[in-house]
Amino acid sequence: MLHYLSFLSVEKTLTKESFIRLVLKWIKESPYASPMMKNAKWNGKYSYVVGDELESLEIHEYKQILAVRFRKPGHKGLLWEIELILNLDEWKLAVCLYSDGGHDIRARAPKFTVPDIIPILSRKGYLAPDGDLPVSQEPILLTRNNYRLLSNLIHGTAAYQLPVIYVSRMFTGEEPINTKRLAARLAGIAHVVVQGSASNNKLLRKCCDGKNEYNGAIGVYYPNSTGHRRFMDRPPHDRNYTEAFIRRIFLYTNSRKLGDLYTWQGVKNALLQEEIQRREETVARAEAQRQKILNDFRDFQRKVNDEQAAIKESAMDEAKAEANRILESFDEDMERLQSKIESLTKANHILEMENQLLKEKSNDSKPVLYLAYEEEYFPGEVKEMVLAAVSASLKEALEGSRRYDLLQDILKCNNYQNLRDNAAGQLKAILKDYKKMDPKSRQALEDLGFVITEEGKHYKLDYYGKGRYIATLAKSPSDRRCGKNNISILLNGMF
């Protein structure tokens, strides 16, 4: 529940440090301060927290804004909370006093006094005047020396941030309301101006064109000529009337809307957004650094590959040059030189294929076969293809013949895995009831080495993406045998 809201201008002599020290002094010198708060020591930082769940003091800084929240327990289970928001960019101070204590808080909310921080700031000279009126706990006396203050107020030639309450004197010279109590209760949210003497009635009526309050009437002049209320006289010093009048002023001031950065939650939200932005920037920097490292690595990799290619090309050029020199010098030994050239070419190809040779039978024997010039699409492709041919020949060989025994020995010694039949079985399973290219089918085909692209109403299946062995599948096949028909094409063309 909001009890008190004040929005004031401050002098430029007020600093963050002096403000915090005043707040701490105010809390420590309070007769209601707990031992914990009396012993609190500021660490000199503008992010400071002390206390527990019931009683605490928090200070946070956001740019040129200092946000302070003080919470303390009161009577009957009430929890009091005061928020102080100091903006040194705009030189403004917002003060809010709340209480919290359950659903029946309005029924048991006690009367409160103006937070002592207001008169402390006023005595220290940190509260800037509101126009030509000081922000004070004392009523301002209207005399012959400053009577035009009322005239300017009535005629709208003077503008104030806070409401101005003008109290005229009764015929008897008495005040219709206790202006000292009124000024003290409304310190920081309204100015109280009281007529100095009833003898000034004629002077005031003349300079105010008869629009001024008189004979105990009270006028409330709201800021910037936004409104004016007149209250007629009541029995002098009627306490109930005074309290009702004070509540009316509080209802007005508490209804004002503060900017987000003049509330505790608004400042906390701004700090949270700042932290989120800071983390996002950190992540962005980290991502940029990661991308730079990745790009540098790729550049390095390309450089290495280029150097390797240059070395290979140079080696090939040197080999060819050497072979040409030998051919030119020794024409009579062409067969020997040709053999050497072929041997060098095969050796270079062996390096490019990362020494993928067929398994040798022993360390002392020569390989049964040399790798041809066809590039392997996957490791061991040539070996599997040769062993598949051996397996097929074994089925046709006469059992017990020399051919049968040699073919069988080759299969045993080379770990024949029958990858072709396995791949063929997988392909048949994928395309048996083919209706569309769902994610599962696509993944299974890609695992078999197919690069899948879309071309109009068809999918193009390029075996290992080399552009040599290609088949197509309709996106929406009308023929139920579409998948089965393609099985034969793919098996014969790729396996």
CATH topology of the largest domain: Glutaredoxin
Which of globular, elongated, flat, extended, rod-shaped describes the shape? rod-shaped
Could you give the order of the helices and strands?
EHHEEEEEHHEHEHEHEEHHHHHHHEEEH
Strand content: 15-25%
Q: Residue-averaged pLDDT, rounded? A: 82
Strand count:
14
Brief sketch in words of this structure:
This protein has helices spanning 16-29, 35-38, 105-108, 117-123, 148-155, 179-185, 201-207, 239-254, 264-329, 334-352, 381-396, 402-413, 419-431, 439-447, 482-494, and strands at residues 2-9, 48-51, 56-62, 65-73, 79-87, 92-100, 140-142, 164-167, 191-195, 218-221, 228-231, 450-455, 458-463, 470-474. The protein is an alpha+beta fold and 495 residues long.
List the SSEs and their pairings.
Blueprint: E1 2-9, H1 16-29, H2 35-38, E2 48-51, E3 56-62, E4 65-73, E5 79-87, E6 92-100, H3 105-108, H4 117-123, E7 140-142, H5 148-155, E8 164-167, H6 179-185, E9 191-195, H7 201-207, E10 218-221, E11 228-231, H8 239-254, H9 264-329, H10 334-352, H11 381-396, H12 402-413, H13 419-431, H14 439-447, E12 450-455, E13 458-463, E14 470-474, H15 482-494
Parallel strand pairs: 7-9, 8-9
Antiparallel strand pairs: 1-6, 2-3, 3-4, 4-5, 5-6, 8-10, 10-11, 12-13, 13-14
Helix pairs in contact: 9-10, 11-12, 13-15
Question: If you had to describe this structure to a student in words, what would you say it looks like?
Answer:
With 495 residues, this protein is of the alpha+beta class. The chain folds into 4 domains: 128 residues, Alpha-D-Glucose-1,6-Bisphosphate, Chain A, domain 4; 134 residues, Glutaredoxin (3-Layer(aba) Sandwich), CATH 3.40.30; 111 residues, no CATH class; 75 residues, no CATH class. The strands form 3 sheets. It has a 6-stranded antiparallel sheet. The protein has a 5-stranded mixed sheet with strand order 7-9-8-10-11, with helices on both faces. A 3-stranded antiparallel sheet has the order 12-13-14, covered by helices on one side. α11 runs antiparallel to α12.
